[in-house]
Each structure stands twice: as C-alpha cells, then as structure tokens.
C-alpha cells in the first residue's frame, strides 16, 4: 500500500475499435457507437447508454458530429475514418461519434442496402439518449459516406428534418438514382443538407440530393485517379473516395474549395456562370467548416447544382480565373487558342474555342496558386497539320482575365494592345495582377 499522500490512479477509458466482419455474418447488426475526444483522439469509447455518455468525455453543450461509413466490401474498418475523426476533433469544437455498422454493411451490396432502415432506427434511438441529456436537435451534424449518406437521410427522416445538418460524401448511386425521397437522402432530411459528388458515373448518385450539391470536376473522373482497370482496386474506388479526402482537406486547409451555381458543368467550363448571385445573393458556397457552407439565405433553395475544379492532390483547391479572347475579325471556322498562365513553378492552361463567325471565346482557367503569383500569359493559335503549307495569322483584338467570382467587369485585366498570332507559335506577354 502507498502512503495516503499518493494520488489515486486516474480512470482510463477502455478503448474500443471497429469490428471486423466475415462474409458469413449473422443477421445481427452489432451496431457500435464510439465516442472520440480531443484528450485521446485514437481511443474510441463504447457508449451504449446515457450513463456511458455521462461518464465519458461527452459534452452536451457542444455540437455533435456523427460519422456513418458505407458499404464495406471486405468487412474491415474504413481506412479514412481515423483521419476524419482526428481532423474533426482538431478543427471543430464538438463531440465526435463514429457509428460502426461494419457487420451490417459487409458481403453483398444489396444486403447492406436492406440494412439501411434498421441501422437508421438504431442510430435514431441512440440520438434520443443525447436529447435526454439536453443536446438540441439542431446541434447534431451527421456526416455520411456513400451508403452511409442514405443512412443519415433515414435518421433525418425519422427526426422530421429537424437535425441541424447532414453532409453526404458521394452518396451511393447504385439502386438509389430512381428511389423515392423516403428511401434516400434528400433536402428535407435536415435543416441543411449538402452533398459532395465525385463519382456520378459509377458508385455515386447522379442526381442532386441536398440544398447544395457540389459536383467536383463535373462529378466524375477526378484528377490523379487511375484511368485504367490495371490499377486494380484503386481504379474502382479512387473517384468515389475523393469526396472524403476533399472534405478532410477542406477542414484542414485555409485554401477555399469554393463552388459556383450553374446549369451544367459544360456551361461552367465555358465561362457562363461567374458569380453566385442566383440563388445565393453573391455568397458562393464552400466545402468544409464554414457553417452551412456559407449559405445564409432564407428560405434555402433546394437541389442547387454547384461546380468547382480541383487539383489532383491535397489541399486540392484552385483559384478559378475567367479568360476572354476577342478576335479582330470573324473567321469561317472555329478558332482554338491555348491560354497559359506562367509564374515561378506555375503553369496552368486552358483551350479557348471561338466558334466560327463569332468574335469572342471564354473559359475557366484553374490554377493552384493565387493569381498575383502569375507574371506572364502565353497565347498559342492552334491549327491542324493539314494547313501547314499555308501560313496562317490571326489577330487577337483583346485578351482579358479576372478572378472568380466576378462581381464587377471593370476589374478585368486586359493586355494593352492587340496580339498577332501565327499558327502553332506561342506569344508571351507580361501580366500583373494585384493580390487580394
């Protein structure tokens, strides 16, 4: 026995990890709720009852983030979950609870789908224990990945849309593109619902499901992801999982993942959607920690498609620039001009097509660095090799650029003089843009 002056050993919470499931699992879902706190971000405390919550580090005065994973093909813990938990604990002053439903999400996708309602009911009854402790419904934010996004929608449906927020990270597409609103995530499931779409041509849903739907790089084929089946599992899952990595990166980095409402991705790339006036009254929505994505208008619009471009790796964000090229006179064929921004260690390009019998072409040029780090623009008139015999020259009457969002066309920066371009020969001009 130690002396009476010895400090009593402090109670260390017993850590619980995600379960592993076999394909031959029983019908028992075995859902676990694991609470993580900033004092020990890697230790999941199993919380079943209200008493567990009171004896843990749960703080009823903070918001609560509930994480729900999706289909687990191999019955294993999601590879991204530890990083998302850590990032949320360090960036959002909130309780973080991970829902482990690996047992119910393994095996065949269709059997996992059948468990969505059952898991939704289990989570709903767990949330009731939080409400008993005085947690307001509006302080609960559910982050659901893939099939987990539809589980989140189910929980929100059971709470009549009164939960604070649902973030769907590439909500699952197979079998969900044509189901009723009651069976999938939709804007009625929380006070604010956002979805980030990165794989609409495979595992992700094609349709908008929230108040704001981010279609990243058009919603499919993410930069840096394998384009060949020979890359194996990564080829199958990289686009789909990009939504998770974008979200983590948006929480960790101050570089904004800002998006712009537009009728289509094609229209966005063509420079037809330059501000966020309609419907957001000039506040462009952003992925990440900003409350409600920075959207502050009431009532909230629903199913607004917003578009943004990204780079191939973290922090993923780009600065979007509008570039405009005006010809001095029309031509009877399409005119292709490659516009490249240059700076120290910076090269970003876009091809502008000026339709035949038209004078103006425009497009969106993304660059990973702020515009003020650009010091030159390169213009190149591109022609097919068939006309090599004939020396072709065009005159670019005007070249202008500005950063998005564009609220004032007077802020355009233009080259001072017209530029003569010869076929397949680049012309360089200095470009100076002030820092914001």
Automatic annotation (TrEMBL):
One of its GO terms (molecular function) is phospholipase A1 activity. Belongs to the AB hydrolase superfamily. Lipase family. GO terms for cellular component: extracellular space. CDD domains: Pancreat_lipase_like. It comes from the Eukaryota. Coiled coil: none annotated. It holds the Pfam family Lipase. This is Phospholipase A1 member A. The active site is at residues 146, 170, 240. It is found in: Secreted. Residues 2-316 form the Lipase domain. The gene is PLA1A. Keywords: Calcium, Disulfide bond, Glycoprotein, Hydrolase, Lipid degradation, Lipid metabolism, Metal-binding, Secreted, Signal. GO terms for biological process: lipid catabolic process. Its main location: secreted. It comes from Trichechus manatus latirostris (Florida manatee).
């Amino acid at each position: 026995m130690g002396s009476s002056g010895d400090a009593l050993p402090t109670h260390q919470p017993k850590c619980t990890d995600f379960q592993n499931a076999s394909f031959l699992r029983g019908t028992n879902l075995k859902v676990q709720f694991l609470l993580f706190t900033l004092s020990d971000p890697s230790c999941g405390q199993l919380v079943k009852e209200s008493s567990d919550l009171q004896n843990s580090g749960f703080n009823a005065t903070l918001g609560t983030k509930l994480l729900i994973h999706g289909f687990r093909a191999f019955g294993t813990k999601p590879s991204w979950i530890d990083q998302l938990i850590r990032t949320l604990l360090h960036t959002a002053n909130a309780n973080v609870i991970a829902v482990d439903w690996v047992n119910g999400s393994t095996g065949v996708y269709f059997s996992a789908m059948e468990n969505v309602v059952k898991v939704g009911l289990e989570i709903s009854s767990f949330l009731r224990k939080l409400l008993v402790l005085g947690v307001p419904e509006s302080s609960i934010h559910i982050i659901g990945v893939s099939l987990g996004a539809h589980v989140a929608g189910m929980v929100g449906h059971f709470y009549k849309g009164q939960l604070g927020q649902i973030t769907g990270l590439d909500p699952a597409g197979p079998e969900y593109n044509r189901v009723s609103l009651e069976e999938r995530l939709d804007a009625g499931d929380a006070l604010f619902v956002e979805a980030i779409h990165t794989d609409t041509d495979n595992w992700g849903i094609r349709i908008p499901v929230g108040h704001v739907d981010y279609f990243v790089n058009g919603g499919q084929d993410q930069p840096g992801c394998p384009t060949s089946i020979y890359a194996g599992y990564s080829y199958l899952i990289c686009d789909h999982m990009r939504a998770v990595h974008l979200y983590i990166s948006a929480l960790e980095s101050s570089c904004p993942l800002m998006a712009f409402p537009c009728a289509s991705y094609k229209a966005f790339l063509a420079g037809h959607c330059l501000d966020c006036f309609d419907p957001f009254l000039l506040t462009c929505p952003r992925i990440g920690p900003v409350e409600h994505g920075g959207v502050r208008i009431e009532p909230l619009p629903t199913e607004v498609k917003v578009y943004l471009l990204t780079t191939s790796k973290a922090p993923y964000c780009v600065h979007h620039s509008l570039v405009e090229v005006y010809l001095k006179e029309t031509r009877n064929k399409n005119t292709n001009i490659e516009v490249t921004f240059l700076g120290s260690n910076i090269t970003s390009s876009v091809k502008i097509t000026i339709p035949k019998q038209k004078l103006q072409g425009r497009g969106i040029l993304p660059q990973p660095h702020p515009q003020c780090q650009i010091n030159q623009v390169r213009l190149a008139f591109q022609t097919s090799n068939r006309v090599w015999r004939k020396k072709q020259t065009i005159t670019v009457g005007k070249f202008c650029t500005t950063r998005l969002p564009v609220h004032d066309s007077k802020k355009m920066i233009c080259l001072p003089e017209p530029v003569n371009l010869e076929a397949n020969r680049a012309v360089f001009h200095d470009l100076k843009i002030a820092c914001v």
